[in-house]
TrEMBL record:
One of its GO terms (cellular component) is oligosaccharyltransferase complex. It comes from the Eukaryota. Its main location: endoplasmic reticulum. The chain crosses the membrane at residues 37-56, 446-469. Pathway: Protein modification; protein glycosylation. The keyword Cytoplasm does not apply. Residues 314-468 form the OST48 middle domain. InterPro entries: DDOST_48_kDa_subunit (IPR005013), OST48_MD (IPR055459), OST48_N (IPR055457). One of its GO terms (biological process) is protein N-linked glycosylation via asparagine. Component of the oligosaccharyltransferase (OST) complex. This is Dolichyl-diphosphooligosaccharide--protein glycosyltransferase subunit WBP1. Belongs to the DDOST 48 kDa subunit family.
Amino acid sequence: MFLMSRLNTRHEPFSDENVEYVSTIFFQLTCTHRKSYLIMLSFIYISFAFFLSAIAHASTVSSKDFALVMYDPTLIPLNDSSASLSPEVKQLLTFLNTHYDTTLSQYSDDEVSLFYDDFPRFDHLVLLPSSKKAIGAKSGLNQHQLLKFINEGGNIFAVGGSEASLPEGIRIFLNEVGIYPAPKGYKYIDHFNSKNGVVELKGDNLISNNRIVENLNTIEYTNGNAALISNNELIQPIIKATKTGYTNKVGQVMSDESTWTFAEQGYLAVGFQALNNARLVWVGSIDLLADDSLYKWCFQDTGVIKLQFVQHIKANEPENLNPHLYRIKDQAIYTIGVSEYKDGKWIPFQVKNEDEQLQLSFKMLDPYQRLNLSPLGPVSSTENSSELDAYAYFVNFTVPDHHGMFTFELDYKRNGLSYILDKKVVTVRHLANDEFKRSWDISNSWLYIASTVLVIFAWFSFVVSYLYIGKPNYVKKNI
């Protein structure tokens, strides 16, 4: 405005002095705006750098899984740093603090919640014994929330006991899964496998072909109880009671009313793996925490396998990966790569016995073919990599003589291992008109072709013989 008013007050033409003055004013304004622009750009750049740094820091902080430990301070005083804890509990806490971002909370805390806006706040949940049936956060830690936690992929490790038990909501959740622990006041007893009145668990208590706990050292099972289990196929028994063991109410004579489990119908450690590979482990005593393989399996540190790649091709077109269209009686080759998570890294997963073989089902509604996959050997799951992190398996088979929509289905479920499920749908077409065999290529047609040739040859022979062979002499004879 100052510049325009100054220019408008003069009616004479611009002189050199006016031009120089106006140029100076414009140069000063341009420099001022340029400095402001550079300052603004610098501020934006610094803010963006801080933003990226915050994101990197957040990703570093959240690289660990989150674990929640629920406890009763009257039984296990985790809130008191000066209190002495059992070696088994110390071992568990050391493992949790080393591998996860661990939160300790009491059962009486009424603000405990497993979810925030329907998203899980924790990846793992540890439920230690409690002296009370009720808990403070009834809406945040009940059977419905625990079931939702499992459905969202969370893992739960529950610990029972004879002198203390789990709260009522947790017991109801275990019952829904198919695990029925003995109530408070019931104790597992085995007079034939006891030393100084304390039950000893040995290798005979392990379930055979068990991948969760492969070896069981002698463990003193004090103040422990047992559980009954349902016929749920997702339940995986780990440690069983002996033929001479039983669970009876403390202080009462053994009878039908006071006995919870008898002989091998009782289980001291039970696992459960949902279809989404979320895991649950229940143990009947804190003493079983001495074997870290139980909670390592529960927290997905062991027994985890995954598919690294899945491919299927036509034998005559190996360059065409995963075609969507097959023709009846085509030769198909199906190949997969499987890895196992062990010691913090992925290694090749090798099937060691026939009972654990991988199988492919080529199915429409029902499997038309069910085939065992043959091993190829260790391979790399990524191109141009020398790290052998997967084991390859394959099968070569003939596509059925039936057109329609078929599925390559790999459904692998074995106790102690995470489940693998992969489905790939393809179309199988019939032969086109110009793809059918013709004449001599069909063996059944040989008889008809030969018959036709013989008829033609016989007719030709007859005509020749009729016209040229045995022609009578028509010369008149004089008698």
